[in-house]
TrEMBL record:
Keywords: DNA-binding, Sigma factor, Transcription, Transcription regulation. It comes from Roseivirga pacifica. This is RNA polymerase sigma-70 factor, ECF subfamily. Residues 108-156 form the RNA polymerase sigma factor 70 region 4 type domain. SUPFAM superfamilies: Sigma2 domain of RNA polymerase sigma factors, Sigma3 and sigma4 domains of RNA polymerase sigma factors. It comes from the Bacteria.
């Protein structure tokens, strides 16, 4: 498809595509950006467009998908306000460090209260990062038994952790 044919077949669709993007994104800037991206993609795919029965349907679908991608992205936030923005330096405050250390300490207490086999399985799977098959080779247990034991160990550790945390908060 040459430039002149692109101008007659695709360029007239820009108003419809813009209205669709504006309706979905509720932002003039986002709609303009999306329209620009879609038009650029259509230009790069101009040779393939000849194979489509309806270039308009393809362009509308492309625009809809681009809008959905923007809406799903973490960058897009409807009603964005600069005042709501929190700057995170990546450095933990003293209080956050203390809370992390306390949480880790309570978690270790919860794991220490597990039976030996469950502790060993948690260590192999979660700390060492072994696969179920590798754990099976090391322990002689079947993979399904390992999965069940790990599930029970996690539930028991979680319950113990919550009891310990709730106890500390009630003091």
């Amino acid at each position: 498809m040459e430039l002149q044919e692109f101008k007659t077949k695709v360029y007239p669709l820009k108003d419809r595509l813009y209205r669709q993007a504006l309706f979905m994104l509720k932002s003039v800037e986002e709609a303009e950006d999306t329209l620009q991206d879609v038009m650029l993609k259509l230009w790069h795919k101009r040779e393939q467009l000849l194979g489509y029965t309806s270039v308009e349907a393809y362009a509308v679908t492309m625009t809809r998908n681009a809008c959905l991608d923007k809406l799903k992205s973490k960058k897009h936030k409807h009603g964005f306000d600069i005042q709501e923005m929190e700057l995170d330096s990546g450095v933990l405050t003293a209080q956050e460090k203390m809370e992390q250390m306390q949480g880790a300490s309570v978690m270790m207490q919860a794991f220490d209260r597990l039976p030996e086999q469950q502790r060993k399985l948690i260590l192999l799977r979660e700390v060492e990062g072994f696969s179920y098959e590798e754990i099976s080779e090391r322990t002689g247990l079947e993979v399904n038994n390992i999965r069940v034991a790990l599930s029970r160990a996690r539930k028991a550790a979680r319950a113990t952790y919550l009891k310990l945390v709730n106890y500390e908060q009630s003091i």
